[in-house]
Amino acid sequence: MEKPMYRLHCFGQSGNAFKTVFMLRALGEPFEAVQVDFFNGITRDPAWREEHNEMGEAPVLEDGDLHLTQSGAILTYLANKHGRFGGATEREKLEVLRWILFDNHKFTSYFATYRFMKSFGATEPDPVVMKFLLGRAEGAFAIVDKHLATRDWMVGDGPTIADFSLSGYMFYPQDESGIDIAQRWPHIGAWIERLKGVPGWANPYEAMPGTQTAPKW
Ligand SMILES: N[C@@H](CCC(=O)N[C@@H](CS)C(=O)NCC(=O)O)C(=O)O
Fold it and tell me: Which CATH number characterizes residue 136's domain?
C-alpha cells in the first residue's frame, strides 16, 4: 500500500514554513505543497482559520487526519515519528527544545518581522519600530554566533531540528533584510554554509510555491 503523503501549507517567502520543508526534505519524505495565499490575506480569513489554523499562520502540516501547526511542534512531531534529527539523548532533546523556544521568541521573530516590514509591508516602515526590531534581532544573532564559535551544530555532533528551526530565514536574499549576516556574524555565516551541504537543502523559493518579489522599501 502506498504510504499517505504529507501535505504542507506553505509559501515561498515563509521562513517558518521553510523550517519544516528543510526537515521533510532532509528526511527524504515527499510532500504535497499547498500554497497559502498569504499576500491576499488568506490567513486572516475566518473560514481559512476555521479549516486550517485558528492561530492564522503558516505552516500547517497535514498527516492524514492530523493537522499540526507551529513549526516547532511540526519539527518535533516529525523528529519523533521518523527517529531522526531530534537529538541523540534526553539531554540533547531538551537542548533542542531550548533553542527552538529561543528561536521562536527572539531569533526568528524579530528578524522575520524586520525583513517582512522592509520587503513586503504595505506601507513604508516606521524607522523607530525598525530600529527596535533590528536591535532585538542583533542581540539574538550575537548569542547564536557565540554558541556556534566552538561547535558546528547547535546541539550535538550533527544537524538537528534546532538547526532547521533557527536557520529558517537564513537562506533568503540579503537585500530582503539589508543585513549581511555572514559578514557581521561569521560563525553563523559558516553554519549557513554547512547547512546548505545537508542532503535535501534547497533554496526556499525553489522548494515552496509562490512568486518571489523584489523588496519594497
Ligand atoms: N511561531 C510560528 C510562526 C508562524 C508565522 O508567523 N507564520 C507567518 C508566515 S511566515 C504567518 O502565517 N503569519 C500570519 C500573520 O501573522 O498574520 C511558527 O513557527 O510556525
Answer: 1.20.1050.10
